[in-house]
Design goal:
- This protein is an all-alpha fold.
- It has a domain of about 170 residues.
- It is built from 14 helices and no strands.
- Helix 11 runs antiparallel to helix 12.
- The longest helix has about 50 residues.
- The C terminus is likely disordered.
Length: about 475
Amino acid sequence: MSRLPRWVGGVGAGLTRLAERLEGQKPEEQGTAPPPAPGSDSAFGPEPVRAAAPAPTPEPTHEPVSEPEAAAGPQAEHVPPPPDYAPAVSALPDPVATVPWGVRVAAEVGWRLLILAGTVWVLMRVISAVQLVVLAFTAALLITALLQPTVAMLKRHGVPRGLATAMTFISGFIVMGLVGWFVVWQVTENLDDLSNKVQHGINDLKQWLLDSPFHVTEDQINNIADNLSQAIGTNTKDITSAGIEGVQVIIEVLTGILLAMFSTLFLLYDGPKIWEWLLKLFPAAAREGVAGAGPRAWATLTAYVRGTVIVALIDAIFIGVGLFFLDVPLAVPLAVFIFLFAFIPLVGAVVSGALAVVVALVTRDVFTATMVLVVVLSVQQIEGHVLQPFILGRAVRVHPLAVVLSVAAGSLVAGIGGAVVAVPLAAVTNTVVGYLRAHAKEKALQAAVPVKRPGPEPSVPAGGAGAPPGETRAD
């Protein structure tokens, strides 16, 4: 009976140790060792302290961790993916990608065209505001292109530049002034005779209408004459204002002539310096192309002016000789008008020829007017098919449609002056654009293919090695 309490005590102590061991295994699984209970004794003596086993190091994973998950840490909740039966929601496409390609191209072209149209409109408004200055300077450019070869010839023969410029300028404007004075003198000298012949021609035309098969009566002709007289009488105020405007036009013409004269003088004397100053206004990247296009544009303008003067002079001489032999009054002034109107392409030849035919019809008879028409048409056909291609050649290459459109646009913007300068402006623009396009292609080819620079070849080391460091081999 004395062994039973001892056995019961040993079983109790064993159960106590088993419980402690079970409690110590939980911290070991979590990687920490439980602190030993101080003073813990058992029936078998104090429990020895055991070192906690090191926790197994987890293998590194290469799965990317998003920034929200990294910021949230290990306490962030895991968001499960949507189930398979959930409907797929596609992302909204880019709005630019939804626009068709053709519409995008049309929009890009459209707003650029709007900018260009606005620029042209503003430029036309500026030109209209200073129309007198622009026309005077353009006329000075044309006169300079006509007189500059004479200055160059005198300089080649040893004449100083100032003296050559003065001689050419004075002689050129004296010749033009004499031509204008001669025309005015011829018209004023023959004005009385011309008015009498015009009155006689009107009476002949009236008699011809009465005898014609159109059944025109004398009362109808008188009614037309009375209506014209009444219209003139009722519009006397308008005619007076038109006369005042005519005086203003004369003042503007004189001002334009003075501006053209001074501009021509300075262009003949300081033309190269003015061109160098204009080059400095362009950006440095575009200066090379503009410097190459300028001389070509000037050569085109010079060829156009000289060719037009020669063609107009030939027309005036041949038509004037025809008018003289047909005994048409004012043959010489009409020839001068034909020379001046030849500078207006298309329209000038028609107007001057029609004026000669009308004068022949009024002052002579129908047969003479018909012969004048034949002479004018023959000379103009020779001009269009022989003189212009031979004299102008390929220096001025402008399509006839471009000529018609440029003359129409120039006449709408600046009247007769605009029609005169429209064609040379179109020719110069064509030359400049063609050269700039070729220059751009040449620069692109030079950038694509390196050009071998002249100079000694760099020495190549033995073994086929390349150029030494810091040097570039020209291949």
